[in-house]
Amino acid sequence: MLNPHLKLNPRIFNQDVEQVPIRKGFGEGLEKAGEADKNVVALCADLTESTMMSFFKEKFPERFVEVGVAEQNLVTIASGMAAMGKIPFCSSYAMFSPGRNWEQIRTTIAYNDRKVVIVGSHAGISVGPDGGTHQALEDISLMRVMPNMDVVSPCDAIEAKKATLALAKSVKPAYLRLAREKTPIITTEETPFALGKAEIYWMPDVGLAQVGIIVTGDLMYRALLAAKELEAEGIKTKVLNLPSIKPIDMHAVITLARETKRIVTVEEHQVAGGMGGAVAEVLAQNYPVPIEFIGVQDKFGQSGTPDELVEHYGMGTPSIKKAVQKIIQR
Amino acid sequence: MSFLSDEKIKELEIKANDIRKSIIEMLLEAGSGHTAGPLGMADIFTLFYFHILKHDPKNPAWADRDRLVLSNGHICPVLYATMAHVGYFPLKELKTLRKFGTRLQGHPHREYLPYVETSSGPLGLGLSQATGMALADRMDGKDKDRFIYCFMSDGEQDEGNSWEAIMLAGKNKLRNLIAVVDRNNIQIDGFTENIMPLEPLADKWRAFNWHVIEVGGHDFRALNEAVQEAQAVYEKPTVIIAHTIPGKGVHEFERDYKWHGKPPNKEEAKMALDELRTLGGKIKSEHQ
């Protein structure tokens, strides 16, 4: 059942569940953050509409900087603005920022300790028809390996809004990963959110869970569908929503592993070095258990619909269920 | 902060010479680091820290200070030596350059030495940070109250990121942004015009909507006038292309790209210090 304490969307399993792009939550959150703090500024590299920075731009044109198609400049300009007390959010597609400008982010933001939020939109395979060049599947690894950099990957638009507001107030540099496609609304305005905190979204009606499923980002919906179907088939799971990949909620991860003794990680990203890798690092050192990794298996993507691609690359509900069934046999 | 008397120029010359001596001593002690660039930029650093900059070494975090962003962090021996001579930290600390636990990292790092405006070293990143600072000042209506300076090398004009910044600053007409390019014509692998020709450099900046001033990089009066002109230009950012002699002050090191990235050994340092002690022959007796 859905965790009754978290006030999750009760309509989540309805056929007509409301669907909103995660990036839209960011756009709304940034506008609110701009209202709350006049030091919040926004920079974009010629993708203002697609990254939904347009809400902020319309409301605060004097605090918006268009840098053109120049992602290296995007983040270094932001660093300079942060040096003068601004709180810059800079957005582009994840493939280009942090894909193209990683060293600029490392030197001028992380190493320099400048409070900048790098917003990578259109992350993951679900960008779809644009094809492999535009499907960022390495960005979580790229960013979480960087010292002094937080990494956040929300599961729906409402969580993205909360994450944006929280990041505007936090003191550290951060990477916010967003997906392009419409995603079912999982949480509500009342669902608790805090940076660095993970929450159990699905749990058995009674008794202990046999498998723990840890999810980051927009695959949460598919993971919840998998958990529900598995329950009907007699397999009890717990699903942990892990929006903060760094800092990771070690307590939540270890507690889940202690209960279930088996973990499946789910992310729309390469399995190498992503969220699953972060979970494996925590568990290998603290409570080693078998893990199955759902994600892209060392491949580039291709054109297709988001559903076709998610299924093809083994990240759909059937693949998640299969991984759970497999790990029970291990 | 404008007029330079003959007396003041003499003072600056002696100060720059002292800074060059410190640079040689630091590099000898460190056993690694860059020689040519720091010596070549010593006059410009001296002029800025002892005459032009609005700053307070006793209150480094003063919010209204000018900002000086050093983009090519590898010439930091001249930055550290100048900052020590002007009073940011004790001269004796210069000997810790590049040693374990030092505040004077091989390339500047704010975490260790908060008096530097940015951590730097990887090339092509300084001007965009300075541009961001100037943009923030414009938003806050502070662009008439202070200047944002960025010291860059000519080699880092090879970097695409430099031109992205040049384009954006030109677009935004950032009047309080002043770049100073150390046009010493050398980079690690050789002469700039052989590695990747930059000329016509002034025309390139001009085409990106910058005001361009070319000046000799060792002429205090001309440099000071160039900065005054740059400060007076209202409708554009300004770049001062300063023609410097790499290794300036030590005859053996001058104009030779081999001195870009190596320190002097004991004999070379002694020879350099002997030459600097007489201010290149201008002073007959050693006054130390």
TrEMBL record, chain B:
- Domain of life of the organism encoding this protein: Bacteria
- Domain Transketolase N-terminal span(s) in chain numbering: 16-271
A Pfam family it matches:
Transketolase_N
UniProt xrefs under InterPro entries: THDP-binding (IPR029061), Transketolase_N (IPR005474)
Cofactors demanded by this protein: thiamine diphosphate
Instruction: Tell me which UniProt keywords the record has, alphabetically.
Output: Thiamine pyrophosphate
Q: Which family does it belong to?
A: Belongs to the transketolase family.
Output this protein's name.
Transketolase
Annotated organism of origin: Candidatus Nomurabacteria bacterium RIFCSPLOWO2_01_FULL_42_17
